[in-house]
Amino acid sequence: MKKLRTKNTLVVALKNTYLFAAGLLLLSACQTKPQAEEQEAPAKPNIVIIFTDDQGYNDVGVFGAKGFTTPNLDQMAKEGAQLTNFYVAQAVCSASRAALLTGCYSNRVNIHNALGPESKIGLNPDETTLAEVLKAEGYATAIYGKWHLGDEPEFMPTRQGFDEYFGIPYSGDMWPNHPWQGTVFDFPPLPLYENETVIDTLEDQSMLTTHITERSVDFIKRNKDKPFFLYVPHPQPHVPLFVSDKFKGKSERGLYGDVIMEIDWSVGQILAALKENGLDENTLVIFTSDNGPWLSYAGHAGSAYPLREGKGTSWEGGIREPAIMRYPGQIPAGSLINTPMMTIDMLPTIAKLAGGKMPEKKIDGKDVWPVITGSSKQSPHEAYFIYYRVNELQAVRSGEWKLYLPHTYRTLAGREGTNDGLPIDYEQTEVIEPELYNLDTDMEETTDVANANPEVVERLLKLADGMRAKLGDSLTGVEGSENREPGRVATPE
């Protein structure tokens, strides 16, 4: 009997132990399930890209600006990253914007120079834009500002992935008030668009920065409960310069400084709207410009100091831009990033962050998020290739080296213009033999070291030949095998 009681006691104890353990497992599951759900992939980040027009490398406080202040951009850099070697693909409006939105070198998608009003070509709707990548992931998308990738209906932003559009279809100087109107140009009135409808023609652009900013803030408020992509390509500080009364006469630099201070105010308004709507911690904000300063406009142009030349050239002053990126908790505050990167890298980087699909057609950009976040200093590119005009391969940037290939470029040759808003003429000069510069030690590009580094020259020339085979080079007569057609206006049969 005693043994039987002992056996029964043991059975009961085992049952109780089992039930207790099962209870603990059930309780643990109940407690950990919500935590597991909280640890799933974070919400898709909001994306804001602020893209100014013709702003120089030197035209932000943290990049050394003089005569005006940019407190909001400086604070953005303090809270995020300042990028000192950030490039656009080409030093001109339309080509630069095509590269940013497609992740391709501009000549791959056959967008060259600056498209004029009623252009019969535009960004091909068959190309996949960053807006389309994000829209497929449930993002609300908007562009407020300057488009400049074709003004025919089939090329407009609302046909290229953007839900909303407010702004001008090309540069603000493409209007009847251009100083060369009637002699060189015959521009129509400058239209202001709401989506695909012209709602006004502009005689005065002084309130455009303000209206773009107001639209941007309203878009953030309306879409605070879903992921969004806000693209703000400001028409300023491209000539003609315009500023609202609230910033007129505020800087020591004159009208140009006033314009930059208003752009900085706009950045501040957008950042404040993100904070006020609880979106600050889950938004990547990128600030940069489409190309360097239009130096022939002198007092009405910015500064690329200490870089050489400006807009319309492949020298550093034309394509290296001030760039700041901010994403709290993801980009370390106060970062200084010296590794080269380019606007073509933004699409694949942002697509990965948003969990989006890459375009089916080949692109040139690569994911640079490890560089942006500081986990790597190594560029995923062996080199960047600098084209200009219609498919001219003019330079190659690889690591600290930049090789210039023979080509003709424009320069003021040290001459200074006026402060009346009128341009002076450029001179044309040539790079006759390949020239090599070490940008780590000579960012001003004052000393050609090609003769002292023949092995570097040879390596970069081989890289240039490889790219010529892909995208061609009109300077050497090479036709590429990978160039794609732009969009073309259908002609009636």
Give a description of the structure.
This protein has 493 residues and is α/β, with parallel strands linked by helices. Helix content is 27%, strand content 19%. It contains ten helices and 19 strands. It has helices at 2-38, 71-79, 93-102, 130-135, 208-222, 255-276, 316-319, 346-354, 369-372, 454-471; strands spanning 46-52, 81-87, 121-122, 140-146, 164-168, 190-194, 197-202, 228-232, 283-289, 320-326, 335-337, 341-342, 384-388, 392-398, 401-404, 407-411, 427-431, 435-438, 487-488. Strands 1, 2, 4, 5, 6, 7, 8, 9, 10, 11 and 12 form an eleven-stranded mixed β-sheet that branches. It has a four-stranded antiparallel β-sheet with strand order 13-14-15-18, with helices on one face. Strands 3-19 form a two-stranded antiparallel ribbon. Helix 5 packs parallel to helix 6 (255-276). The longest helix has 37 residues, at 2-38. The chain is globular and about 60 Å long. The model is unreliable at 1-41 (pLDDT under 50).
Which SSEs are present, and which pair or pack?
Elements: H1 2-38, E1 46-52, H2 71-79, E2 81-87, H3 93-102, E3 121-122, H4 130-135, E4 140-146, E5 164-168, E6 190-194, E7 197-202, H5 208-222, E8 228-232, H6 255-276, E9 283-289, H7 316-319, E10 320-326, E11 335-337, E12 341-342, H8 346-354, H9 369-372, E13 384-388, E14 392-398, E15 401-404, E16 407-411, E17 427-431, E18 435-438, H10 454-471, E19 487-488
Parallel strand pairs: 1-8, 1-9, 2-11, 2-12, 4-5, 4-8
Antiparallel strand pairs: 2-10, 3-19, 5-6, 6-7, 9-10, 13-14, 14-15, 15-18, 16-17
Helix pairs in contact: 5-6
